[in-house]
């Protein structure tokens, strides 16, 4: 308590566990696993500075002014995992989240954690990672305009 009887003001973001992950392929290349490693103890949060004009507010403006952010001309289709895997580069990044396929290429520059983390998982199903680290985030609100179609198992 402070001298005036109020509780101290928290210092947000000072001590947050640091999290990292890697993607490993099986020897035959048939499967991938996400390995997470959490540093012991608490460390300062590594915030990545975004260039001017690349905040989440700016992203909302982009999606409001451009009705075809995904580049699919409003056509929703069924997409196989084989097709998703082909879009695994910074200049062409798709991912699967909760059974839906998104073209996140235009969102890369706006991602608060930096573009590299999304590029690492481009072409993959990121549902388990998203649920683990961003369960509270409304993905539909953030990347809904990047929606391409539904993942199919055919």
Q: Can you tag this structure with a few keywords?
A:
154 residues, alpha+beta, Flavocytochrome B2, Chain A, domain 1, 5-stranded mixed beta sheet, 23% strand, globular
**Uncertain spans, ≥5 residues at pLDDT below 50?**
12-19, 37-46
Instruction: Sum up the overall morphology in one term.
Output: globular
Distance between the ends: 61 Å
- Percent of residues in helices: 10-25%
The CATH homologous superfamily of the domain at 48-152 is named Cytochrome b5-like heme/steroid binding domain
Which class of secondary structure composition applies to the elements?
Answer: alpha+beta
Average predicted local confidence, pLDDT: 81
Number of strand segments: 7
Secondary-structure element sequence?
EEHEHEEEHHHE
Can you tell me the CATH architecture of the domain at 48-152? Roll
Strand ordering within the main sheet: 3-7-6-5-4
Oligomer type: single chain
Family: Belongs to the cytochrome b5 family.
Domain Cytochrome b5 heme-binding: 76-152
Organism: Cyanoptyche gloeocystis
Keywords: Heme, Iron, Metal-binding
């Amino acid at each position: 308590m402070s001298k005036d009887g109020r509780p101290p003001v928290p210092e947000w973001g000072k001590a947050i566990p640091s999290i990292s992950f890697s993607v490993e392929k099986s020897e035959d290349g048939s499967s991938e696993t996400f390995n997470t490693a959490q540093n012991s103890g608490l460390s300062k949060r590594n915030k990545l500075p975004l260039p001017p004009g690349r905040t989440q507010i700016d992203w909302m403006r982009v999606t409001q002014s451009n009705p075809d952010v995904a580049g699919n001309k409003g056509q929703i289709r069924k997409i196989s995992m084989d097709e998703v895997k082909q879009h695994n580069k910074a200049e062409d990044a798709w991912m699967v989240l909760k059974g839906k396929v998104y073209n996140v290429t235009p969102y890369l520059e706006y991602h608060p954690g930096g573009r590299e983390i999304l590029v690492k998982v481009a072409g993959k199903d990121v549902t388990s990672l998203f649920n683990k680290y961003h369960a509270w985030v409304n993905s539909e609100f953030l990347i809904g305009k990047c929606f391409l179609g539904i993942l199919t198992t055919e």
